[in-house]
Amino acid sequence: MPRTTYTPSLPGLSTTDDLDTVINWGLGADSTAYLARMLTDPATHGIDLERTAVLYMATGSEWPETRLLVEEFMLPLLREHGVRFVQLARNGQLKADGFTVLDDSRHPERLFARGPWTLWDDLESVGTVPQQASTRKWSVNCTNLGTRSIRGPRFLLIRNSKSSCD
Question: What confidence tens digit (pLDDT) does each residue in 76-107 have?
Fold first, then answer.
């Protein structure tokens, strides 16, 4: 069987961007600690911050405290290191509805907490309620962008790669 090269289209990024690392930041403790470590000691991990982009998918369901902490601690760190920060949101329930780029900056000033389509919109559209106990399956499945690479760079994800949102 012949092998085919697949170049995925990531929202907010193009295949002509000069990137070798893309970090999908979910704002949780693990991905925030990972991002802080990469920003403060990139050489140890072989990362060129000039060729790195951080993606964040706004679900509309972040705790107010999370937004305040991100704006107080993490956005200044991103600005200090001039790392490209792309904030995205879904336009609707289906992947075909596309995405909105809420902000794309190397000097982000604020975290956009919501976009045109939120987690709550999705839950209401299918008649379910948020999971408050156990795992947060919607946000794991519907905010991930997959574990694919763009022209061979590292695509660093702290997420499951399956999506039930197609």
Answer: 999 999 999 999 999 998 888 988 999 999 99
